[in-house]
């Protein structure tokens, strides 16, 4: 078989059909090809729909798990809130005692200052007494 342009045939040119050689397939072949195409298209669309359905099932499961996690977090937050209220009540019950401790601390500091002053005064007095005693 010669190339339409008149060049010698190469192995690549063998697979190329010329317009004259192309034939329409028979009617039975077209029907079979259509059935095959529709069958494969149905298989493809079924696969796509199955994948989409699986995606939605996955999202549903993720939403259920997320909902459960949020319920757990809600319970934890409620427990923390309850414990915080209890702690605040206990602190409020201790507040008068803490105020008394602060007052006692201030009084001890004032007493300590008085003791330092008394110590300094007694040292001065002792120094004067020793001075007078020497005379």
UniProtKB/TrEMBL annotation:
One of its GO terms (cellular component) is BLOC-1 complex. GO terms for biological process: anterograde synaptic vesicle transport; endosomal transport; extrinsic apoptotic signaling pathway via death domain receptors; lysosome localization; mitochondrial outer membrane permeabilization. Residues 1-26 are annotated as: Disordered. It comes from the Eukaryota. GO terms for molecular function: gamma-tubulin binding. Pfam families: BLOC1_2 (PF10046). Belongs to the BLOC1S2 family. PANTHER family: BIOGENESIS OF LYSOSOME-RELATED ORGANELLES COMPLEX 1 SUBUNIT 2. This is Biosis of lysosomal organelles complex 1 subunit 2. It comes from Bos taurus. The lineage of its organism: Eukaryota, Metazoa, Chordata, Craniata, Vertebrata.
